[in-house]
Amino acid sequence: LFAGETEFLKGVVAMDGLPPADRTEICFAGRSNVGKSSLINALTNRKGLARASNTPGRTQEINFFTAADSHYIVDLPGYGFANAPLKVVEAWQRLLKAYLAGRQSLRRAFVLIDARHGVKAVDEEIMTLLDRSAVTFQAVLTKADKVKAAEREKVLAQVRTKLSKHPAAYPELIVTSSEKGWGIEDLRAVIATLE
Ligand code: GDP
C-alpha cells in the first residue's frame, strides 16, 4: 500500500469539499504536538508530506492523501489548543462531527496518544465523538522512545482502562516511535487489512 508514492490530494474546509467516498479511508486524530505529522511521514516514507498544520488560528483543514489509488489517508487537524479562538474551535468541531458521522467509506480512525502523557480529557472527547459516530478507532501510542519500558507499561495500562469504556474502541493498541521506526510496519499491516 505504501510502496508507491502517497500524494497530497487536498485540504478540505467544508463538507462539500470532500472527495467522492469511492475508496477505503482511514483517518488520524490527535492532540497538537502528539507526533501526528511525523507518524504520517514515517508511514508513507515521505519526509515533509504531512506538515504540522496546527498553529492556533490557522485555517483548520482536513487533509486528504491518496495511497496506491485505493486508499485515502486523512489527517485531521490537531486538537487541544486551549487558546484558539472559540469561533475557530466551533467551526472545526462542526466540520469534524459532520465528517465523522457522514463518511461512509471511513473504515477506522487512529487516535494518537503521547506515550509520556496517556489519555487526556481532549482525547476522551474525540473518543466519545467516535463512539457516537460509530467509527471504530484504534489507539496508537507515539514517541515511545521518549519513555522507559516501565513508564510505558504504566501508560499502556491507563490507555487500556480508558479504551475499555469506549464501545467504538478496537482493543489492540499499536506502540510507535517515528524517530526509531518502531511499530510503523505494524501500523502499515493493520491499514492494509482494511478494505
Ligand atoms: P504534530 O503536531 O502532532 O503533527 O506533531 P509533530 O509530528 O510535528 O511532532 C511534534 C514534535 O515531536 C516534533 O518536535 C517531533 O520531532 C517530535 N516527535 C514526533 N515523533 C517523535 C518520536 O517518535 N520520537 C521523538 N523522540 N520525538 C518525536
TrEMBL record:
Matching NCBIfam families: GTPase_YsxC
GO terms for biological process, alphabetical: division septum assembly
Keyword Zinc-finger attached: no
Keyword Protein biosynthesis applies: no
Name of the featured protein: Probable GTP-binding protein EngB
GO cellular component: cytosol
Gene3D superfamilies: P-loop containing nucleotide triphosphate hydrolases (3.40.50.300)
Function: Necessary for normal cell division and for the maintenance of normal septation.
Keywords: Cell cycle, Cell division, GTP-binding, Magnesium, Metal-binding, Nucleotide-binding, Septation
One Pfam family, short name: MMR_HSR1
Signal peptide (residue range): none
Organism: Tranquillimonas alkanivorans
Gene: engB
UniProt-recorded Gene Ontology molecular function terms: GTP binding; metal ion binding
CC cofactor: Mg(2+)
Family: Belongs to the TRAFAC class TrmE-Era-EngA-EngB-Septin-like GTPase superfamily. EngB GTPase family.
Annotated EngB-type G domain residues: 22-195
Listed transmembrane segments: none
